[in-house]
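pasting for ref
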Amino acid sequence: MAAERKARQELEDHRQKAKMAQESKRERRLADEDALRKIKQLEEQKYELQKQLSCARPNADPLHAFTRPFAGSPEEEALLNEMEVTGQAFEDMQEQNSRLIQQLREKDDANFKLMSERIKANSLHKLLREEKQLLQEQVLTRDQQIESMGAVARRLEEKERLLQATLSAVEKELLLRQQAMEMHKRKAIESAQSAADLKLHLEKYHAQMKEAQQVVAEKTSALEAEAYKTKRLHEELAILRRKAERMKKMEQAGSSMDEGTTGGDPGVKRKDAVLTKCFHVFCWDCLRTRYETRQRKCPKCNAAFGANDYHRLYLST
């Protein structure tokens, strides 16, 4: 920025110098035009004086008119004096013109130098402007980078805040777990003590249970022997009951046979079939009808029978 201000100041100085040079050049041009106008007037006056002198003395040598003393009329002498003054003024004007031309050349050189410096200053200004534009672009890029970094920083801050919150939650959870671990450790110690006590009780109970098992084994052996005896008695009792039932049924069958195959009632069908399940006698057609109609139970005792459980009776009178 300081270099840019310095370059601007130098450019402004060069512009002022160029403006002053242009002003001086314009003034010099006006002075030169005025001098040329005066020279032209003096030349015209000189020409008129020479013309008048030639008319006044046609045989006189104009080259020696100014070197020898003039002995003529006062009018001619006045013209000669005026010509001398005019010639001297012309010479002075030429010298002044030469000096002005020299000054003009010097000023042209100065103007050329100023123009060169101005061109250099313009080039420098252009370079500085390009450098400024480049710096502005760099600043814009840097601003964009800073903005991007700011956005990244904000995201990182948000992430850090979330991580801090997570860390706080984890620390709280860790504290709770440590407390729970201490509590479980105490409970484990208590459980170990209880386990030791229970182990002692268990050993005691095992000893008692072993004794009880021996007692139970002895009683079980005795009970099994009693049960075997009881079972044998039940089996014998069942056999006796079946024999008694069979005898009773045979007696009933015998009494039925004594009454006759019809029971003594006219119109009743002849009982010519027996159920081997219960030894009750009925007519063959009645049993067959009950079997076919799925009424497969004894009409007297409701004992179920199948196809092979009823047979014909062949009795002779």
